[in-house]
Design goal:
The chain is mainly β. Helices cover 6% and strands 28% of the residues.
Length: 127
């Protein structure tokens, strides 16, 4: 029969302070001063919000995925029956969107590719 000594697992480090990031990453320890179990988990990244588009719309054409400081979106449709499909183009600089040269024809649900400074909008619906 198995006894506790065979199944207890590993000993948890007991210390009176926290480990620094390099020492503690991926480790579990008990801080005897605070009475808490601690760990440091490396996070690959986090989502963040940026500025809102100047013209709210959906079904836009995008120039690739862009980067955190250089994205481009153009065209799309609005919820307003008065404007419907739009030709508006906006570029992103990492904190805000700025309207730039519009499409020559309003369209939505097309394809876009390229970079912020050299993009193509292909096909799409004009109605």
């Amino acid at each position: 029969m198995t006894d506790y000594k065979e199944i207890k697992g590993k000993t948890v480090l007991n210390i009176a302070s926290d480990l620094d990031n390099a020492e503690g990453q991926g480790e579990i320890w008990f801080n005897t001063t605070s009475g808490d179990f601690k760990t440091i988990v490396k996070v690959a990244g986090a989502w963040a919000t940026g500025g809102s588009l100047n013209t709210g719309r959906f079904d836009q054409l995008h120039a690739g995925a862009g980067t955190a400081t250089a994205a481009l979106t153009f065209g799309g449709a609005t919820n307003s029956p008065a404007t419907g499909v739009t030709a508006v183009a906006e570029k992103y600089d990492g904190s805000s969107w700025t309207e730039t040269g519009d499409l020559n024809a309003a369209r939505s649900i097309g394809a876009g590719f390229g970079t912020q400074t050299a993009a193509f909008g292909v096909a799409g619906s004009t109605n």
